[in-house]
Amino acid sequence: MMSAELLALRHAIASAGERRLIWLEGEEDDCIVRAESLLWGGVFWLGQGPERHAPQPAAKALQRLGQECDTLVFNAFSGFHPDAFGALAGTLRAGGLLLLLTPPREVWPTYPDPDRQRLVAQPEEVDRAGQGFISRLVRLLEEDPARDLTPASCDITWQPLDGDRPLSADQARALPAIHNVLHGHRRRPLVLSADRGRGKSAVLGLASADLLSRDPALTIAVTAPSHATVATLFAHAERALAEMPERLAGLSYVSPDRVAQGDVLADLLLVDEAAAIPTPLLEAMLARHSRIVFATTEHGYEGTGRGFHLRFKRVLDEQTPDWQELHLVEPIRWSLSDPLEPLIFRLLGLNADISAPHPPTSPTWRLVGQDELARDDALLNRVFGLLVLAHYQTSPSDLRYLLEGPDLDIHLMEQGQELLGVALVAREGNIPPDLAHAIWAGRRRPRGHLLPQSLLAHAGFVTAGERSYARVMRIAIHPALHRLGLGSRLLDKLVSHYRVLGVDYLGSAFSASPDLLPFWLKAGLKVLRLGLQRDAASGSHAALLLMPLQSEYHAELAQWRQRFMSQLPALLAGELKRLDTELVWLSLRGGPVTHVPDLDEFEHRELDCFAHHHKPFELCQATLQRWLLRRVMMLDALSQDERRLLIATIWQYAPWSELAARQGVAGKPALIKALRSLLARLLAQQAPAG
Q: Quick check: 86 and 58 in contact, CB under 8 A?
């Protein structure tokens, strides 16, 4: 394209507020040369390219969020990273061109894409990855409107935001609404929802700057799934406070788990990308902070607003019924007629959706292949739409894994054409002995094989690498059909299916919560490991659960389980001392600890002295610890407060003041009195060991 033609094209599409994609196919060097002839204005170059254009790898793409460009070069020869592609496409302003550099379309699906390395455990296994994601891209790119270089005809020239119009009409409504959260009635949170590119994060930053400029003592806490997520917010706040930068000290980022734990004191809490934060954390924030703004992207690469609406708005209705919502519609960097954004949505599944199915009468189960899914847009839209709806963090990279990940089984529960549920299962294990030993010794940690690697490296079970596993990565039932037992029915199907195939174990690993664990325990899985660190995004500890599918492994699992149970009290005194006591109880349910010695006569008298007389708690705590471990099954018959009293004092060394506040009593003396009374009752019942 000649320079004059290029400028004319850019001017025409800028006047319409639109952007375009130019697909450059061929040899990489030739594509780079052709791309350079099309560059203009601010350039972001992702992937391999000339140094003069400051090319960046996909891993650093999020550093560009909050910035704008006129030309975005995406070199797919360096790997097509879906999250990076989606994120940076949003930085391209009206009049901009997205230059996509790829091998010729007929060979692109078979090209050794470096991004496929993420999908496999070992580099040499990359050929085992599928081709469905790229094949689908090729099919969708062909003849898409975003590649038509003729701009739409429009009578009115589109006007970007500038000094004369610094805010969109939606932003102008949002700004005073944010002010009102701080200065109006307490417990009236605001929800800002929008598709991306509507200036949601920008208006949060501008509102923060405006409030800080008026009150130097004000403190505003910002939380989001990651610090990179709020780059736009902080960039706008910094620009707006350029004349008084010292006021920025009142604006700080805090991770979601810290906010939920109550570690943050702030006058105003801003929660950006709330859809990508687990509902329990959002509930904790709502309980601890009386002035909150929740901002969420309706179709984002980090989470979906629709799932947020289903999961969290019920909580808002119950706890803060006077909450308000504003929906931002007008795009900031492009017009509503822009064809590029719909293309990005189609390519990356950001518009995947599923309607609520009817209550089923005779649901069916089947396996669907990745190639079939890649060819059937309607089915893929339903499957990925349900996965997005059901989980707080589902990204375009998950779409690539869904269509190309090796050793992945996709199970569907349907009634007719209606999709009721989806389960994704990764086949793991059978690790070569040398590699398994290196993992056990802590010298290797390859990708994938999450269950056997964790059992080897963390739990130290040396035979774990030899076994085969079906790891349930996701199991999702449409929210409209919850509490009908469909999830349990689907899980039962998985158990039967993999047992017949001869798989040794079925398991799962996920961020554990007291609400989630009972589903898995009811199906017969046992907890074998709890992560020592809280996940910053979910605020929860990971749990690994397993059940044997073949009779010869029942004894092995029982041995692994005994090891976990006997080790847990030591961890509860240290790394897990703040673990939810209900999680502790649930993790220990399902069987006694048998190989820990029972109490002798002296220790029985010691407990009797504490329960009925005045022996100090600390002087018999060691005996209480072993007594409780031998009798964990009695916890099932106790109330939640009673379980907390035993676990938090005996195993977790909980601070007396904190525990007293949780139990609603006045300090340590009241707790000790309650503990003596509870122990006396339990001893009177003469609970047998085990």
A: no
238, 247 in Cβ contact below 8 A?
no
Looking at the DSSP assignment, which residues form a beta bridge with residue 547?
506
Separation CA 296–CA 64 (nearest Å):
20
Binding site listing for ATP? 171, 333
| Residue-wise pLDDT tens digits, 526-548 | 999 999 998 866 778 999 999 99
Q: Where in the chain is the domain with CATH 3.40.50.11040?
A: 3-147
Tell me which fold the domain 364-568 belongs to.
Answer: Aminopeptidase (3.40.630)
- In this structure, the dihedral spanned by the alpha carbons of residues 29, 34, 38 and 42, taken in order and rounded to 10 degrees, is 0
Distance of CA 283 to the CA centre of its chain: 16
Tell me the three state secondary structure of residue 676: helix
Considering the domain delimited by 169-328, tell me its CATH architecture: 3-Layer(aba) Sandwich (3.40)
**Inter-residue contact 187 to 290 (CB < 8 Å):** yes
Give the N- to C-terminal CA distance of the chain in Å, as an integer: 80
List, by residue range, all CATH 3.40.50.300 domains of the chain: 169-328
Contacts by residues 49-53 (CB-CB < 8 Å, ≥ 24 positions apart)? 49/73, 49/75
* Residue 622: pLDDT over 50: yes
**Residue 156 burial class via C-beta count within 10 angstroms: exposed 0-12, middle 13-18, buried 19 and up:** exposed
Binding residues: 171, 333
